[in-house]
Amino acid sequence: MKKELIERLRRFLSAHDMMGTPASDEQVVCAEQELGVKFSPDYIDFVKNFGKAYAGMMINSLDGNENVVDETKSFREVHPEVTDTYVISDDGSGNPIMINPKGEVEIYYHDSDAEIEIIAPSLEQYIEDNFPEW
Prior knowledge:
Elements: H1 3-15, H2 25-35, H3 41-50, E1 53-54, E2 58-59, H4 68-78, E3 86-90, E4 96-99, E5 105-109, E6 115-120, H5 123-130
Antiparallel strand pairs: 1-2, 3-4, 4-5, 5-6
């Protein structure tokens, strides 16, 4: 992620006391191994800087409730055909928001025949397009 975006997020999250616990390198490696995926560099930058935090959507980290490992495993139990993505959030209506192997952010519409839509070419771009500072 661009340094400017990380600093913008840091200022906002610090000012509103909304920063989570940053993930460690070890947590990143363990989670990737457990899920059988390689996290995008944007996602790694985000969780290593902010942990679970808001950036246009609540982005799950690697520990605590609603973490990326548990959310991804839960999703895969219902949709075993989806094995190469990981769940970083949801849209508030139960549709998981995921990152695919290309680093694209996608949403899985569970009520419309499992339609998948790419909503951003990267997590960085999603945040740039959807992060309103209050």
